Amino acid sequence: MKNSPLQSNEGFIQIYHRHVDMVYRICFIYMKNKYDTEDMVQNTFIRLMNHDITFENYEHEKAWLIRTATNLCKDHFKSWWKKRVRINNNVSDKRQETFVIDGTLKKVLSLPPKYKAVIYMYYYEGYSTVDIAHILNKNESTIRGQLLTARKRLKAMIERESEQ
After folding, report:
1. DSSP result, 39-87
2. What is the rounded distance in angstroms from the CA atom of residue 22 to the CA atom of residue 63?
């Protein structure tokens, strides 16, 4: 049996520093605001601390964190509280985000969640459609279809913008 890197604080801290930025970006895609994103990042790493898991390699570690963060964000929107309480998403936060959101990323973030997740993971994180399917626990053909639809939607947005 392999020794878990989480058996020590140093092991956990190393994993945290290796992946915190990526987990933040994944959560931000779903949550769309800094405060909920920070909560989901924290919940993701709390879940890691509470699980006795041994990672086979770096990619397994990364995939586990992406899947956990994605599932926590999706579960957040399923809760009864979110269904009953409407919070204005247009509230502006004067603080800077920890990463730059350029025009292309803004377009990606405006896509429905299932499309923005696959686009982000494919183009920004460099995963293949096979890897994304495995991480999100979906069929490969579903991921390829979502990626195709997302590309078409982004192309239409860009064309509309250039016509103006």
Report:
1. HHHHHHHHHHHHS----SSHHHHHHHHHHHHHHHHHHHHHSHHHHH---
2. 11
- Give the burial string for 17-44 (b: 16+ CB within 10 Å, else e): eebeeebbbbbbbbbeeeebbeebbebb
**pLDDT averaged per 10 residues, the chain (length 164):** 57 91 91 90 92 88 93 82 48 48 77 86 86 88 93 88 80
Q: Among all chains, which residue has been given the structure tokens 């959560």?
A: 27
Residue linked to tokens 């250039």: 162
Res 54: pLDDT: 86
What is the rounded CA–CA span in Å between residue 147 and residue 111? 11
Per-residue b or e along 139-159, where b marks 16 or more CB atoms closer than 10 Å to that residue's CB: eeeebbebbebbeebbeebee
**Domains annotated on the chain, with CATH:** 1-89 (1.10.1740), 100-164 (1.10.10.10)
Answer left, alpha or beta for residue 77, where phi above 0 means left and psi between -120 and 50 means alpha: alpha
Dihedral sign, Cα of residue 153, residue 159, residue 162, residue 164: negative
Quick count: other Cβ atoms within 10 Å of Cβ 136? 22
What lies within 8 Å, CB to CB, of 152 at 6+ separation is none
